[in-house]
């Protein structure tokens, strides 16, 4: 009887030393960045579509010209706190004006990720599916830091 008691006690105490796996170790979030080019006005409008959030038109988009006189348009993709971003798909995939590393890519800037595009990708309608990786749950981060995402209306 005493040995049976020791065995049960040992089994329960040994079970408590097992390492518990984390609930999840990494969080992924997918968004779509869609650009529509209007030939008649040589104008392109882009929008960032995030799940369960309102779409944002031309999200912090700005132009930069490098030393080779190549103009790039950078637009924020909303991966704050993300330490990884990947273009999963280009739609349409047969769009040969947009080639990764040459006429579009992702770049980390100002605590966020930006998608840049240059010619000839600037003059075409294209959509990108982008995945962001977070070391912690972004929903909890936004909830706990909502004051960081409030906009001032300037009045």
UniProtKB/TrEMBL annotation:
The keyword Amino-acid biosynthesis does not apply. Keywords: Signal. Pfam families: DUF7808. The keyword Repeat does not apply. Residues 1-19 form the signal peptide. Residues 26-150 form the DUF7808 domain. This is Secreted protein. It comes from Mesorhabditis belari.
């Amino acid at each position: 009887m005493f040995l049976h008691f020791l065995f049960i006690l040992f089994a329960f105490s040994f079970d408590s030393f097992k390492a518990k796996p984390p609930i999840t170790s990494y969080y992924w979030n997918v968004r779509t960045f869609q650009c529509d080019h209007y030939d008649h006005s040589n104008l392109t409008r882009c929008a960032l579509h995030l799940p369960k959030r309102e779409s944002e038109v031309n999200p912090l988009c700005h132009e930069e010209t490098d030393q080779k006189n190549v103009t790039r348009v950078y637009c924020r993709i909303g991966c704050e706190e993300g330490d990884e971003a990947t273009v999963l798909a280009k739609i349409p995939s047969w769009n040969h004006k947009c080639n990764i590393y040459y006429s579009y890519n992702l770049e980390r800037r100002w605590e966020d990720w930006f998608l840049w595009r240059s010619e000839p990708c600037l003059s075409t309608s294209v959509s990108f599916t982008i995945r962001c990786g977070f070391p912690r749950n972004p929903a909890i981060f936004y909830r706990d830091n909502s004051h960081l995402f409030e906009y001032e209306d300037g009045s």
